[in-house]
Specification:
- By secondary structure, the protein is an alpha+beta fold.
- It has one domain: Acyl-CoA thioesterase, double hotdog domain (Porin, Beta Barrel), CATH 2.40.160.210.
- The chain is 16% helix and 34% strand.
- Strands 1-2-4-5-6-3-9-12-11-10-8-7 form a twelve-stranded antiparallel beta sheet.
- A hairpin with a 2-residue loop joins strand 10 and strand 11.
- The longest helix is centred in the N-terminal third of the chain and has 13 residues.
- About 4% of the residues have low confidence.
Amino acid sequence: MTDQPQPQPLPLAEPFVPRLLRRDRTWGDVGIFDVLTLERIDELLFRNRINQANVSGQLFGGQVLAQSLAAACGTVSPDRSPHSLHGYFLRAGDAAQPVIFKVDRSRDGGSFSTRRVVAEQNGEAILHMECSFQIPRAGFDLQAAVPEVPGPDSLETLADILHANADRLPRAFVERFSVIGPFDIKPIDPQQVLGLSATSQRAAWIRVRGAEVSDNPLLHRVGLLYLSDFWLAAGAVNTQVPMWQLGSDLRISSLDHAMWFHRPVRIDDWMLYRTDSPSLMNGTGLNRGLIYDQSGALVASATQEALYRWLKPNAG
């Protein structure tokens, strides 16, 4: 058995509070664990308390993913941690309506548990997720080598980069991404923020503010899923479209998201998020990510396919 802190049950809370974050606001006043705290309506039925709108004005996909996993965690023995999941986004979420999460107990075995979660609004599914849980066991140990990049202490934050180059960037882009909720981000290559990237490979140090309030490893693992959706999808088009066009000229919609949790993690510490995109065609792009902690341990892997659509005629 691992000597890491053991998971604890996720908190449940009072009914939905419509603290909706509009497109023109940041997420900085909402704690990550407040987002993950759900109301239990019945044994296998949950409702969220907080919605977060992304740059398109629709629900942030990372929120729906993480809240779906949190609902599944509420039906599994706390000695079993999520180790993998795959979610399909079916419809855009409405930030003005709470989300209902229906959990199906697919299987409870000797070491593994499987759950299926359907996230719904107004009686229609907006996300399907399959997720698997495992009792931690000792075993083999192998991982991909950590990339050689500068450490977070030597890099500028995304906000510093944007403000230093505000005269060459759209004002709305600078204002929107200078404060992006609970995330602290330090890109390895500022050019990938300011213009076109020479490659689909991207990397950034990233952490979640406010996560230090909890020592529950389960909450940090679910919070990592929330974080993983942020930085991932833009890499596929960054070689052809500068980031400042995303959201205003080009809309990105996640189609699915998969994640594998490898090792314990604390999301309030700096993590290196290394991504690449092996394919972009037919209006869709495949994006892959590896997440390392500061010690070089590979803590998680993620993949996501996204849809890319121009909002303005002849913009592309």
